[in-house]
Amino acid sequence: MTDVSPLDLRRGARACAVATTCPYCGVGCGVLAEPDGQGGLKIRGDKAHPANAGKLCSKGSALGETVALDDRLLAPQVMGREASWNEALDLVAAKFAASIREHGPDSVAMYVSGQLLTEDYYVANKLMKGYVGTANIDTNSRLCMASSVAGHRRAFGTDTVPGLYADWEEADLVVLVGSNLAWCHPVLYQRLAAAKKARPTLKVVTIDPRRTATSDLADTHLAIAPGGDGALFNGLLARIVAQGAVDSAYVARHVSGLPEAVEAACASDLGMTGLSAEELDAFYRLWIDSEKVVTVYSQGINQSSSGSDKVNAIINCHLATGRIGKPGMGPFSVTGQPNAMGGREVGGLANMLACHLDIEEPAHRDAVQGFWVSPEMPDGPGLKAVDMFRAVEQGRIKALWIISTNPAVSMPEADRVRAAIEGCDFVVVSDITARTDTAELADVLLPATGWGEKDGTVTNSERMISRQRRVLPAPGAARPDWKIICDVAARMGWGEAFDFDGPAAIFREYAALSGVAGALGRDFDISALAEISDAEYEALAPFCWPLSARKSGGRFFADGHFYTKDNRARMLPITPRAPQSQLSEAYPFRFNTGRVRDHWHTMTRTAKSARLSQHMAEPYLELNPTDAADLGIKPAQLVTVESPAGSAILRAMVSERIGRGEVFAPMHWTGQTASAGRIDALVAANTDPVSGQPESKGSAVRIRRFSAAWYGFAIAREEITPTSRYWAKARAAKGWRVEMACDGEPEDWVEYARDLFDLPKAEAVTLLDPARGIARIAFIAEGQVLAALFAAPEPVAVSRAFLTDQIGAEADPALMSGRPGADRPDPGATVCACFDVGVNTILAAIREQGLTSVEQIGLALKAGTNCGSCRPELAALLASATPAQAAE
Ligand SMILES: Nc1nc2c(c(=O)[nH]1)N[C@H]1C(S)=C(S)[C@@H](COP(=O)(O)OP(=O)(O)OC[C@H]3O[C@@H](n4cnc5c(=O)[nH]c(N)nc54)[C@H](O)[C@@H]3O)O[C@H]1N2
Ligand SMILES: Nc1nc2c(c(=O)[nH]1)N[C@H]1C(S)=C(S)[C@@H](COP(=O)(O)OP(=O)(O)OC[C@H]3O[C@@H](n4cnc5c(=O)[nH]c(N)nc54)[C@H](O)[C@@H]3O)O[C@H]1N2
Ligand code: SF4
Ligand SMILES: [Mo]
């Protein structure tokens, strides 16, 4: 056998476009991916896919830039050294088996992910619940969708999203509550924006304590007090009743619990919403007067210690008015991860069985056990994520297998979770890279194939199942997750039950089991596909479930038929609760957290793309100008943010878009990308009592200025990791850009810079002004810039865009000034990632060419004309530029 390198193997991949699905958000866009002959992929939107009809956002368009092999895990590792698959799998099976033998099945656990494909998920769940005999398998969907699941199950008897994306386009009113759709579900946002443009009577209301890029589309933005949503929707229910807007016929036939729900609603305190009587009145009138209303909700609702109640408060209003399951109306939970929905379907949550069957229900357990012919079934729910890591901390879980998620970064009280994993007897991590905060703690690291290298299915927010298809060969020894799980199961003695020859075989079994669920009266039934051939599976076109002899596709519940014992939906009495962490003198700020436009979670993929890394290159804290002034914090200074659980150092982004007493930080930065940017270290592990979902958006924190002796900005061709107290790095087109700050000043700046860049011999160009504390040092070889450091006692005012362009280039005469010469304007921070158009360029064009619309900006600069993800920001720049123009 010849030794072909993984990259050579990739270069040889057939240049033919393959239809697959984007691996990021729950919109579930179709992607055409074609090998480019260099080991990468050319990416286009798939016009034939119903979710996106050819559109992609910035992250989807940049997929080709994230498949490079440089930091991939290419072979198994045991205790930090490379090992064969046999050695690694034998060890995993032996350790799990020993723990089960000595301490029982509940001494082991799996923590998996809504980014697994359905087939991977199915075998993981089957192994744990059916064969190991424990329900200790939970998923990062606990941090994401658990409150929606709980709300759906309490109201409908099962976890069903009643409507379809098309409903948004048909609606008269779309309410976006706790959703930053423009950044987090950009293609759905674009569909909504297009529908509104075509039919301006379509109204949009956003409900979010912050003004976001999404609010810019809204006719009305309600800056609700954090956690005020339960009271807001209770108020709506009370008004629905008071105005006689109840659909009495629907309620009489299909709904129970209305009087109790209304009584609780009438008793709740609207003051909790923080909104004025006029705002409430206008919103209530609009909602009630718009027959076709879709209420879309996301993490601003779910990630709350009363998340399930907030979900039910929303659903109550739709049930009372019968506005559910009909064209243009219904409650709509948008899912986060590409297969968050699929994971819910296969039973990835510790409190679910496969195919929406209930673990608490003996008849359901028996049916699944009979179908699996399994030796063992747990008789109740297992540990939910927060409790699972507590059990790890207490030594009750002795063997833990983490697959496709990064809990040392994304779990609340992340420092504590990291320590718990570190202290666990035996930890296995399956990932595509070893460079994660969690993978660093593993005893055994298993290399998984990633997006583009694996086959299976995912389900999006509207229940649409579509195929992810392989385009590239598996790199090195990497294997698909389903295969790794089945191989371990076989070594534990269950080879026959896990003897699948590919994802199609797993899918067939899963579809057959869904038929059993369907016969038990469950909603999730795709049994029409139980005998699908390998070739049909390969060609499977996207479809919305269910797909069975009983029903195919469409909406649920227009005619009742809920999945409760009496087939009636339940309205629940809701008593709104404030976030669990109380603000105090010691911790006076409400810590809101979430996402930015161009990064995905813990950035193991998006940080590989230079253009995705330019939009937000640093971890930051958004805070109100008055609060900043009170704290003596100037824009762009650094702040230390602390809670009782931990601390972080973040760049202050002073903004009117956030209210007083509230601050916001994105969740993306890790130990790999920043010195102190893991903001989940601060988040209290308060959970919703029903769903177990953590309150990731409601902790109490305090803020103080980080006392920096100096701030720095560095560019480098090779990756560097500074030793300064603060640093944050991001990839640039030809190297790296790094922000720095430290409390002590180095004795010799040039030596410091040499160490930083590990360039002991390169020629140094220096500009030192010790009196002013300014140091500028560039290293140049053969006329080309290798690296440079710009340091100053205040945040360094150099042009990041200009300097980033200098990496590896012939040194510009203006290099040491940190700004382009007068003949060349500074483009400013990137707004349009597709065409790399900066904020200054856009503002100058608006000013000089008198541009007044996003379309005109597109014509002038191309910005916003490809993926369109920056269009909300272009609109905001237009709005901000207009008054300035008037003043001139
Ligand atoms: N670019 C990008 N897109 C993503 C992801 C990503 O990492 N990056 N991740 C995907 C995943 S897994 C998920 S779950 C989704 C999440 O998608 P979203 O839920 O839309 O995103 P978040 O930014 O977490 O939070 C949404 C909003 O909730 C608001 N909020 C906070 N507290 C409250 C409150 O008490 N009430 C209300 N009404 N609102 C509140 C926040 O200010 C924030 O703007 O995004 C998906 N899409
Ligand atoms: N404070 C705060 N915390 C939050 C949130 C918040 O809004 N605020 N949001 C929460 C939500 S909604 C979510 S969904 C979580 C997300 O948090 P995580 O799931 O922890 O984040 P990811 O970075 O998506 O982790 C996915 C991991 O899987 C790896 N991977 C990628 N593809 C594959 C594959 O095919 N196989 C395997 N085995 N591994 C693969 C990636 O390299 C990465 O290490 O964060 C939660 N945490
Ligand atoms: S909206 Fe963007 S991230 Fe989400 S599936 Fe579509 S292309 Fe991927
Ligand atoms: Mo999520």
What does this structure look like?
Mean pLDDT is 95; it is low at 883-888. Helix 4 packs parallel to helix 15 (340-346) and helix 4 (118-132) packs across helix 21. With 888 residues, the chain is an alpha/beta fold. The chain folds into six domains: 6-65, N-terminal domain of TfIIb (Single Sheet); 77-144 and 339-544, Rossmann fold (3-Layer(aba) Sandwich), CATH 3.40.50; 146-333, Dimethylsulfoxide Reductase, domain 2; 589-705, Barwin-like endoglucanases (Beta Barrel), CATH 2.40.40; 710-817, no CATH class; 830-887, Orthogonal Bundle (Arc Repressor Mutant, subunit A), CATH 1.10.10. It has 29 helices and 34 strands. Bound molecules: ligand MGD (2 copies), iron/sulfur cluster (SF4) and molybdenum atom.
Uncertain runs with pLDDT below 50, 5 residues or more? 883-888
CATH topology name of the largest domain: Rossmann fold
> Quick one: how many beta strands?
34
Oligomer: single chain
Structural class category: alpha/beta
CATH architectural group of the largest domain: 3-Layer(aba) Sandwich
- Radius of gyration equals 27 Å
Sketch the major β-sheet: 7 strands, mixed
Overall, the morphology is: globular
**Average pLDDT figure:** 95
Q: Span from first to last CA? A: 73 Å
Question: What CATH first level of the largest domain would be assigned?
Answer: Alpha Beta
* Order of the strands making up the biggest sheet: 5-4-16-15-14-6-7
Strand content: 15-25%
Total DSSP helices: 29
User: Which ligands are bound?
Assistant: ligand MGD, iron/sulfur cluster, molybdenum atom
Q: What's the structural domain tally?
A: 6
As a percent range, the share of helical residues equals 25-40%
